[in-house]
Amino acid sequence: MASLSRVYLISKYGDVVVGIATGFLAYSLYERKTFRKDGEKLADLVQWKWDQRQKRKEAVVAVEQEGWDELERELKIKQEAARAR
Predict the structure, then answer these.
(1) pTM tops 0.85
(2) CB hemisphere CA count around 6 (13 angstroms)
(3) Where, if anywhere, are coiled coils annotated (predicted)?
């Protein structure tokens, strides 16, 4: 089995960085060239998704806190019942 040597333009990781940077630049130029309404730009969509994730995270934390509160109430009831005996 023959091994293929890899050819890099800049370096192993430099090519990746240049490729990603070029993609971001190209997309930003494309978005600037084509007028989009407010709320339809990439930044707006990313912000919307971020807000969704934050709300979901807050909901999960609230549900977990409710569970802990319920466990604490049950524990207090059991402790009071044990003291009463």
Answers:
(1) no
(2) 7
(3) none
